[in-house]
């Protein structure tokens, strides 16, 4: 037998054996599982057969879910500091034993590892395995006497694998992990750069305190502290600037010493008796000002906020910069640095917030959202058709029903605290009437429909409200149930069927909420796990002492499961999370920072950003059948209703239009009124013939009009007008309340106002004469810009006339001059010259309508919660203000103690006050304090008690949860609008390119040999070295080592670290210079400079050399910044050597975003300019005194002048403590106030709310839209060819830029991560 025949027989035998095995597998009870495990257990073997039946059956999963829930209950019953009871310990052991048995059963059924579909091949089984192993180690350590209960905290994570919807969401997150890791690398890269810079600049600066000088009398009997301490010194100390520094707070700025309520002003008498120094002889101001002896500024042992906030080393610098990036408490850190170092330090913090918060953090959000769109398939709900006929009786009946509901809602909305008794009586009668009407309606429906009445959810809802209202009237309760009547507002939503576009926004919101169900479950599980972990780490630790020695338990704590979950939810909203961090690091260890970073990064920047993806997905489904069918059906019904209404109202009306009938009847009356009609016709005919005449005086051939036309169309005319607009804006920016009325500056500003008003009046007259007023193709009023200019000119003239005629200096019409700031928008007419700015402006203008609809939905949402808030809290937000209020229980006790019974500024006493309070909560600034006020509210004229009614958490937490959805609706609108505008701009660019023959010509690229063919062997070898990966990897390693060495620097560092950093810097600079010289030799100077990355190399080398020169020549004191900060610039070179494809895509995204953000920043500049000048006009006279203390306004945040107003508005734009700033402006005038503005309390909410909506909700989200489109463009363009040398890669990019238009847009957001997801 030959070898071939033997081979054929073996193949036939193997084939027969494989077929037999496949047939046997098909006959197995579980064909997807291994037939034999552990070498002997087959699927029919009894132990394994039983395990397979248990593991594959549904009851195992049901029991597992039940055990997980019971485990959660057990974990929630844990009390920090007390330990678990014996019963809970036994139960925990039972739960652990159950999951061990479950794991064993599954291992026996599926096999451990190495089999098909074995236990450890499933990633969810791996999670259960690791959790069981961790708990086993925990029990082992407990036997050894080591408390390791943290292992049980992660037990609830088993629930993820048992709930399919949560498992799908987590699966998507796992797919996003590689991209998230890259974003995290860039995020840490940016934080590290700024942290190193902070250490270089401000190490030890925040320790500066004012110590006692040498001139204090030796026989001093006063007990003075070593340095000046404020009332809250541990949290907010008095940070001073040393001699020679340009800080803003010196020791001479310490407030005078106070004694017996008076301010001391005397110097210490060195020869007088010490016993009489502190005793006032005549008045309170004649005592000794002991604070004047604190005149030496030097470093102390403490940093602000119990030592947490500082730049003394890289670790604390990371913590501080991370807090700045989260935009919570960053302004306070900036103010400390401005006091200690320089006022110009605000530039550093603005750069950190822009790069870190507005760009890098939003890049993370965009990556998660787009990956979610690409990987998660969402199903849209199909609505029931339910068409109905809209006849006149049905329309009238609906209108009457809506009117009745609207009136019933109004009767609830007008209720307020301290309302007149007559009004209370009238509202009570109205309540009875409307309750009776709704009861009759319900009775008639029950009689007509019987049990079918309860098939409609709206009817069930109405039934519950009516029953509650009737019970309230019959039982004469105290009104607690009246809050449920506010739910009638939800019935009013049916009016939105007549607003199709608004209904579409509501459908998007509804779809988003429905699709976010699994995400909400995952967030709840995440919050629970973090809460239990926080209880084990920080439970019972947040106990401190106040300056009087009293023990204070912080409200933001982890002592119970309820407050631990509330605190974790607060951290997710990033409201006052830094205060929780300060307490945790003070009570435990600085490593507690890792817990908060984990909660914020995973919860806020990962899980909550999935909601952004769901919202964007919902907006992209605008062409779905749901929106199309609903909109068309609503339009049809509305048209049918209007048609039937008009036909039934006047059945005798002819089908012809009124104009036709009037023309038909006109000849019959012509002879009777012939004479007057002839005169009118002649006048109309003359006017029609002279429509092209300006003012019916200047004909189109008039020389003066032709001259005016030539003048206004001349380029110099536009430039001159823009120059005067700029000068006008400069004079408006110079306005401030502190200018004396008789000063030269005030005279110059007044004269400039007259001159500019005259110039703009002349401009308007020239344009009106040249173009005509109303009539004509290009008349003056046909342009909206001209209409705005004309109105501004008229208002300016009116203001000048009134100001000259009015004798008083302060008149309300003075605010009209601020309207001149609208002229700053006129340069937007030339936006066609800047396509990126045009794209941003188009997106902003196009988004007005959808943003208006979102605002309307938010107002309806606010209105509903406002009525609830008024019913729950009206008259309860008062408290006693005094020194000792522990024994005060009500208003009478407060007044008897000569204390003040004051109302909290944000309250729910009336509908307007409730709306303002809810808007503050909606912006996520100050909502925690409002929640505490609501929990402490006891009753009317009752002193608040801590956590009096914890059920009010439902009101505040549900509001904040809904606010997440509504805030992300703004992002969805801006992303959709930006994408549409970019697509439109792309079409316009393509049309222009198609009409331009020069662009359509094919480019002839001559074939040339490589430039390095004629190199000498030595230069060729240098070229090979410079184009290899070795030099990039080597320089990246060198720079990384350099950065790590720079990170070793810290406050009070030893000499060897200083010498190490100094000499290493010299060595690294030499290596950078050698690299640049080698590349110049390899590529030539021209080819070297053609690459933009090489520009970065040259800049880094120059900066390094300059810093060495400044430090070597001891010129550090001659320049405004520390020269060592220039060393940090070398870190930027790492961006060049990050050759990972995904990292380069993100870097391109950031670079493109920066170019687009420049245009958006120009919009910010226009917007900020207007509001800053308006803020100076409104709030420039506000001062912080003892009678009017401030919580947000102070030396660095006020509206005293234009520059400070810009800085304050930027703080408001970031959302940091803006509610306290608005609270300070809601100041009521007192009889002793001189310059108080009476209308300020009404104008201030409109000023800040409109600014917050435009800045935080619109313009900032425009940045998110720009990032999303930049990421899409980076993916659609050809990826970088890393195999090419640097110069050839740059040439390739230049050729692509020449071939394609500069502002290409993406075609769809759906494919925005094609490159990223395919890798």
UniProtKB/TrEMBL annotation:
Entry keyword set: Calcium, Calcium channel, Calcium transport, Glycoprotein, Ion channel, Ion transport, Membrane, Metal-binding, Repeat, Transmembrane, Transmembrane helix, Transport, Voltage-gated channel
Ranges of biased composition (kind: Basic and acidic residues): 985-999
GO MF annotation, one: low voltage-gated calcium channel activity
Biological process annotations from GO: calcium ion import; membrane depolarization during action potential; positive regulation of calcium ion-dependent exocytosis
Binding site for Ca(2+): 925
Record bears the keyword Repressor: no
Acidic residues compositional bias, start-end: 1286-1302
Coiled coil listed as a keyword: no
Transmembrane regions: 59-78, 90-115, 136-157, 177-199, 315-337, 343-369, 426-447, 453-474, 523-544, 593-616, 716-734, 754-775, 787-806, 854-873, 952-975, 1030-1051, 1063-1084, 1096-1113, 1150-1173, 1247-1268
UniProt biased composition (Polar residues): 642-660, 1304-1319
Domain (Ion transport) ranges: 58-372, 407-624, 714-985, 1030-1276
Region described as Disordered: spans on this chain: 642-673, 985-1008, 1275-1319
A cellular-component GO term for this protein: neuron projection
Protein origin, superkingdom: Eukaryota
Cell compartments where the protein resides: Membrane
Entries under InterPro entries matching the protein: Ion_trans_dom (IPR005821), VDCCAlpha1 (IPR002077), VGCC_Ca_Na (IPR043203), Volt_channel_dom_sf (IPR027359)
Membrane topology: Multi-pass membrane protein
Family (UniProt): Belongs to the calcium channel alpha-1 subunit (TC 1.A.1.11) family.
Designated name of the protein: Voltage-dependent T-type calcium channel subunit alpha-1H-like
Organism for this UniProt entry: Notothenia coriiceps (black rockcod)
Gene: LOC104958992
């Amino acid at each position: 037998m030959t070898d071939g025949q033997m081979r054929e027989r073996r193949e036939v035998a193997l084939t027969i054996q494989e077929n037999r095995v496949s047939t046997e597998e098909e006959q197995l009870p579980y064909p997807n599982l291994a037939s034999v495990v552990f070498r002997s257990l087959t699927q029919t073997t009894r132990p394994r057969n039983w395990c397979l039946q248990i593991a594959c059956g549904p009851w195992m999963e049901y029991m597992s879910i039940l055990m997980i829930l019971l485990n959660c209950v057990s974990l929630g019953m844990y009390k920090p500091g007390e330990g678990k009871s014996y019963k809970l310990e036994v139960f925990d052991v039972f739960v652990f034993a159950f999951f061990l048995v479950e794991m064993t059963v599954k291992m026996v059924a599926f096999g451990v590892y190495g089999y098909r579909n074995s236990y450890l091949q499933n990633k969810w089984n791996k999670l259960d395995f690791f959790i069981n192993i961790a708990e086993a180690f925990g029990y082992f350590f407990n036997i050894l006497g080591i408390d390791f209960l943290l292992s049980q905290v992660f037990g609830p994570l088993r629930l993820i694998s048992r709930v399919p919807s949560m498992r799908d969401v987590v699966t998507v997150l796992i797919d996003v992990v590689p991209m998230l890791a890259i974003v995290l690398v860039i995020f840490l890269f940016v934080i590290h750069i700024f942290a190193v810079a902070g250490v270089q600049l401000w190490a030890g600066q925040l320790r500066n305190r004012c110590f006692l000088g040498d001139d204090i009398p030796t026989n001093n009997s006063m007990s003075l502290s070593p340095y000046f301490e404020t009332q809250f010194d541990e949290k907010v100390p008095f940070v001073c600037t040393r001699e020679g520094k340009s800080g803003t707070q010196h020791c001479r700025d310490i407030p005078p010493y106070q004694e017996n309520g008076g301010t001391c002003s005397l110097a210490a008498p060195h020869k007088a008796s010490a016993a009489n120094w502190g005793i006032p002889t005549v008045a309170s101001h004649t005592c000794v000002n002991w604070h004047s002896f604190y005149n030496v500024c030097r470093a102390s042992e403490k940093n602000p906020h119990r030592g947490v906030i500082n730049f003394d080393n890289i670790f604390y610098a990371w913590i501080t910069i991370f807090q700045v990036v989260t935009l919570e408490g960053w302004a306070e850190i900036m103010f400390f640095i401005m006091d200690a170092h320089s006022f110009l330090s605000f530039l550093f913090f603005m750069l950190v917030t822009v790069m870190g918060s507005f760009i890098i953090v939003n890049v993370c959000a965009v990556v998660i959202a787009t990956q979610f769109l690409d990987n998660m398939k969402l199903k849209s709900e199909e609505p029931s058709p339910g068409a109905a006929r809209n006849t006149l009786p049905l329309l009238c009946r609906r209108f009457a029903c809506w009117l009745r509901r609207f009136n019933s809602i109004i009767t609830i909305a007008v209720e307020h605290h301290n309302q007149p008794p007559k009004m209370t009586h009238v509202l009570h009668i109205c309540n009875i009437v409307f309750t009776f009407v709704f009861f009759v309606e319900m009775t008639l429906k029950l009689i007509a429909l019987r049990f079918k009445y309860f098939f409609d959810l709206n009817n069930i809802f109405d039934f519950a409200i009516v029953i509650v209202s009737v019970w309230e009237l019959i039982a004469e309760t105290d009104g607690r149930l009246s809050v449920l009547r506010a739910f009638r507002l939800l019935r009013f939503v049916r009016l939105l069927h007549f607003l199709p576009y608004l209904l579409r926004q509501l459908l998007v919101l509804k779809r988003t909420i429905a699709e976010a169900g699994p995400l909400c479950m995952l967030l709840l599980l995440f919050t629970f796990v973090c809460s239990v972990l926080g209880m084990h780490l920080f439970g019972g630790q947040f106990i401190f002492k106040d300056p009087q020695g009293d023990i204070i338990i912080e409200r933001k704590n982890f002592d119970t499961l309820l407050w631990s979950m509330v605190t974790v939810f607060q951290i997710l909203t990033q409201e006052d999370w830094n205060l929780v961090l300060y307490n945790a690091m003070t009570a435990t260890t600085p490593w507690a920072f890792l817990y908060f970073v984990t909660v914020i990064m995973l919860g806020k920047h990962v899980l909550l950003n999935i909601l952004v993806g769901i919202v964007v997905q919902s907006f992209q489904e605008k062409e779905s059948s749901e929106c199309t069918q609903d909109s068309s059906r609503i339009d049809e019904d509305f048209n049918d209703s209007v048609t039937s209404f008009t036909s039934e109202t006047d059945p005798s009306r002819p089908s012809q239009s009124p104009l036709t009938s009037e023309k038909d009847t006109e000849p019959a009356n012509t002879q009777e009124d012939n004479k007057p009609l002839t005169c009118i016709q002649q006048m109309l005919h003359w006017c029609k013939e002279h429509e092209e005449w300006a003012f019916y005086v200047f004909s189109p051939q008039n020389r003066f009009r032709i001259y005016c036309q030539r003048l206004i169309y001349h380029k110099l005319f536009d430039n001159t007008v823009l120059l005067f607009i700029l000068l006008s804006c400069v004079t408006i920016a110079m306005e401030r309340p502190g200018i004396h009325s008789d000063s030269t500056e005030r005279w110059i500003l007044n004269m400039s106002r007259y001159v500019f008003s005259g110039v703009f009046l002349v401009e308007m007259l020239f344009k009106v004469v040249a173009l005509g007023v109303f009539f004509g193709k290009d008349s003056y009023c046909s342009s909206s810009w001209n209409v705005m200019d004309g109105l501004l000119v008229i208002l300016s003239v009116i203001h000048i006339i009134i100001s000259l005629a009015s004798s008083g200096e302060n008149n309300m019409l003075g605010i009209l001059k601020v309207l001149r700031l609208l002229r700053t928008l006129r340069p937007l007419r030339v936006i066609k010259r800047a396509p990126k700015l045009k794209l941003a402006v188009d997106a902003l203008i196009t988004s007005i309508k959808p943003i208006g609809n979102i605002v309307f939905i938010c107002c309806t949402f606010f209105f509903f919660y406002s009525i609830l808030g008024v019913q729950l809290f009206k008259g309860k937000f008062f408290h006693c203000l005094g020194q000792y209020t522990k024994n005060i229980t009500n208003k009478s006790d407060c007044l008897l103690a000569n204390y003040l019974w004051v109302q909290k500024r944000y309250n729910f006493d009336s509908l307007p006050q409730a709306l303002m309070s809810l808007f503050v909560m909606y912006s996520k600034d100050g909502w925690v304090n409002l929640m505490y006020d609501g929990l402490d509210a006891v009753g009317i004229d009752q002193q608040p008690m801590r956590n009096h009614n914890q059920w009010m958490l439902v009101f505040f937490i549900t509001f904040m949860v809904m606010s997440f959805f509504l805030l992300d609706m703004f992002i969805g609108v801006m992303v959709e609008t930006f994408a549409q505008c970019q697509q439109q701009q792309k079409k316009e660019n393509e049309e222009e390119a198609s009409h331009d023959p020069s662009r359509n010509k094919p480019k002839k690229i001559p074939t040339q040999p490589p430039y390095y063919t004629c190199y000498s062997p030595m230069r060729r070898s240098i070229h090979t070295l410079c184009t290899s990966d070795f030099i990039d990897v080597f320089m990246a390693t060198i720079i990384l080592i350099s950065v790590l060495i720079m990170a070793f620097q810290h406050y009070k560092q030893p000499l060897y670290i200083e010498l190490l950093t100094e000499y290493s810097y010299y060595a690294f600079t030499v290596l950078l210079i050698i690299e640049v010289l080698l590349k110049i030799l390899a590529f030539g100077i021209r080819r070297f400079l053609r690459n933009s990355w090489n520009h970065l190399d040259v800049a880094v080398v120059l900066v390094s050399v300059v810093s060495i020169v400044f430090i070597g020549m001891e010129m550090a004191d001659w320049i405004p910044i520390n020269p060592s900060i220039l060393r940090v610039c070398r870190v930027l070179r790492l961006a060049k050597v990050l050759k990972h494809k995904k990292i380069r895509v993100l870097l391109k995204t950031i670079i493109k975003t920066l170019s687009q953000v420049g245009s958006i920043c120009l919009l910010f500049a226009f917007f900020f300019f207007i509001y800053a000048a308006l803020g100076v006009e409104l709030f420039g006279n506000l001062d912080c005194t003892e009678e009017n203390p401030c919580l947000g306004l102070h030396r660095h945040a006020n509206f005293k002048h234009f520059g400070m107003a810009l800085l304050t508005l930027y703080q408001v734009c970031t959302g940091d403590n803006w509610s306290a700033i608005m609270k300070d402006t809601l100041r009521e005038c007192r009889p002793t106030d001189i310059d108080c503005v009476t209308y300020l309390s009404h104008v201030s909410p409109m000023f800040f709310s409109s600014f917050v909506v435009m800045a935080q909700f619109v313009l900032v989200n425009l940045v998110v839209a720009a990032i999303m489109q930049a990421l899409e463009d980076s993916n659609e363009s050809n990826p970088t060819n890393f195999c090419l040398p640097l110069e050839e890669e740059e040439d390739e990019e230049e050729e692509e830029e020449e071939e394609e238009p500069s502002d290409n847009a993406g075609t769809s957001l759906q494919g925005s991560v094609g490159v990223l997801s395919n890798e």
